[in-house]
Amino acid sequence: MNNQPELIVMLTWHDYTVENAAQVFEQCKDSQAHYWGFKEHPLPLKQMQELFAHMKDCGKTTMLEVVAYTEDEGMDAARHAAQCHCDIVMGTKYSDALRDYCHSQGLLYMPFVGTVNGRPSVLEGTIDDIVAEARHLEACGVDGIDLLAYRYGGDVPQLMQAVTRAVSIPVCMAGSIDTFQRIDQVKAAGAWAFTIGSAFFEHRFGDALPQQINAVCSYVSQKK
Questions:
Q1: Fewer CB within 10 Å, N- or C-terminus of the chain?
Q2: CATH of the domain at 10
Q3: Measured on CA atoms in the order 194, 200, 203, 207, is the torsion positive or negative?
Q4: Residue 22 is part of which domain span?
Q5: pTM for the whole thing?
Q6: In the chain, what percentage of residues exceed pLDDT 70?
């Protein structure tokens, strides 16, 4: 069990990249967080490339999370990720073609699991069905799973634990993690990582963004 999951800072609000993402990262680049990312919309490709390049120059591991549900949309975003030289593509509805393209470009691929729709995205389906799909995706050779745990209307702790116990690949809990209690639940489930985006911009963990990020990182590192 991973009792110290990684924080992935998402420069996003309500599933869209904030317009001043580059400036925000510049303010926060010396914080404790190692993993950084944003969404496929609305920044132009050139700005995405520049921001990802700067993140990598600062020693960060980078991810593009794609809130899209068709193969064509997913492929377009994956091509942008390849052009940006980012490390991980998160999100999309799984397809063999997307998996093959990401791997051909040296990208790790962590698709959504379950029935996902909308923007901000929501997760639907039974826990048994989501677990079965997670096992199927692992067998298909994905590098991890993007689980929208707190966008789920059912028993979230049970869902998280069922998925992490069912697979041996990394599971990232994404979306609506906005309290330390939810971080405790993520830790208890043994997640590899979790994302926080909107909650930072809504100051759910304090005032200035760098201090919020460091507060979450320090909290995660505490042994309980």
A1: C
A2: 3.20.20.70
A3: positive
A4: 6-221
A5: 0.96
A6: 98
